[in-house]
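It is worth pausing here to work through a concrete case rather than discussing structure prediction in the abstract. The textbook approach is simple: state the sequence, then state the predicted structure, then interpret. We follow exactly that order.
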Amino acid sequence: MHWLRERLRPVKLWLIAGGPSVDLLGYVAVLAVALTVQNMNGFQYAEWKLYDQSLRWLRTLTHQPVANDVVIIAADEASFQAFDEPFALWHKHLGTLVDAMVTAQPAVVGLDIVLPAKSYESVVPGIDRELMAPLLRARGQLNLVVAQTLDEQLQPRPIFPGFVALLGADRLASALLCFDEDSVVRRIMSAQCGAAEAHRGIAERMAAVLGAPPRAEGLIDFRYGLPFPTLSMAQVERWQAEGNSAQLRAAFAGKAVLVGVVLPLEDRLKAPVGLLASEPDNRRIPGVLMHAQILRSLLNHGFIQPVPAWVVALLTALVCLCWFGYGYKKNLIYWTLFALLPLLGLYALWLGHALPPAALLVSAKLAYAARQALEAMRIKHHRLRLTQAFAGHVDGRLLQRVLSGDAGNGGDLMPRRQAMTALWVRLPADHGVWMQGTPEAAAEALGTYYTAVRMAVQRAGGMIERFHGAQVLAYFGAPLPVRHAPRAALEAALAIVRSYPEWSRRIAGDSTQAPKVAIGIASGEVLAGQVTLPGASPFVVLGETVERASGLAAQTPDGDTQVLVDPATARAVAAKGLEQVQVAGVEAYKLITR
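Step two, the predicted structure:
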């Protein structure tokens, strides 16, 4: 794995560096992944669910009836209780229904009850004539379309030839419906579902009889039409037996009529919406209602047409622009887009077009997440560089401010010129504490000295640049901004001097005299920034200001503890708490520590 990381390191650094080439390549990669995801089978389930929900919203918002509606005659529980014969032997009742329709004169009748494939004369003598005679009387007077199922080879299952001869082969139609992979019926029977032009669906045959214009294949239009009420087949038979032709014509004259089984547990199909008036919230509907909704679509608004693939690809390319940019403005646009895309899909559906909002939402999310991941990788890399630069030198709280981006421009480590204050702390390098004791004792003394200086510097908001033997260099104003760098440096120096009696005793040990501390402070412009080296990225400061602070610390007599300040620092604090002195013929100021 190590060799793989090493091979990928240049790619990672190239991505972190960014630039137009990274942005363009990343956009192309995100777009390719988004288009690939949209074609995955598992993804389609989410698209279907959102499409179904949009249909239900539209029906709730519009709830519009249709001009040319379909009447449903149901072989329901009341009919099964009223008729004594088994369902397969309902020849007499179907014949009575045909006679009733001849009396009522509907525009077309679709019989979604499959007729038997053979004669039952041997079982019930004369039973075939009970249906054949009404069919013969209906010839030329009734437009009747009869459902026919398909076998395993998707070929029409046979119907008793005597019935076919009276009906006409051109009045047979498929009763099958096209299922999507989630077992919901959303589209008409088409070539992809095994349909052939010569054996079209029952709703299409009925629409053709009515002279409806040809419709392109598409999705069943569930937007319009109220849930279907049903009229019991037993009731229709009673009207016919009573000779109530007025009632029959009032119910059916000039209308499209579908006859089918409507039972609680039989012949139920999953639909995007509820269509049965007695069960408006049940989306498992009788199959005859699905044919009726298809017929509604054919006679009124047509089918819902899927948006062309090239339009979806173009919209995907647009939403994948979420890859570009970073910050609160982009986040605002992204979340606004998340709200608008479902509304756009709903509006397109209202216009009769099926736009896949889930595909666009996932594409936008993918682009946004990919960019967030890249920016997270950059931040992680930046924090690693910061840690390498300042760990052990900056107070943990200050380092956390840099890592969290709460340090303003202080988080920017690019080399630049800036004003700052340098503080140089010095102990005599040849003192007996270091030279005469054991190495362990000398190391412990150095640790005590370093800790005292570090605490004073970091409490004042400064950064330890380095520990160099008995000398310590610290900065104020770089890389973290300090409200008043010269004053902060003087405060740190004063804290070091005032704490000197305590920590100097621990350093001196058995020695008769502790080493005296000398401090130099200088302010001015420096070149500050991070230098990239293999495996590290140290933060360095370069300029005459640092040398001036070092020189002031070196000019302090070894036997005296004092703080010398350059004129620039003195001017910055209006020389308050300072006393002007001459050091090697050069003007300087001494910090009054009493």
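Step three, interpretation. The chain has 20 helices and 20 strands. The first strand starts at residue 70 and ends at 75.
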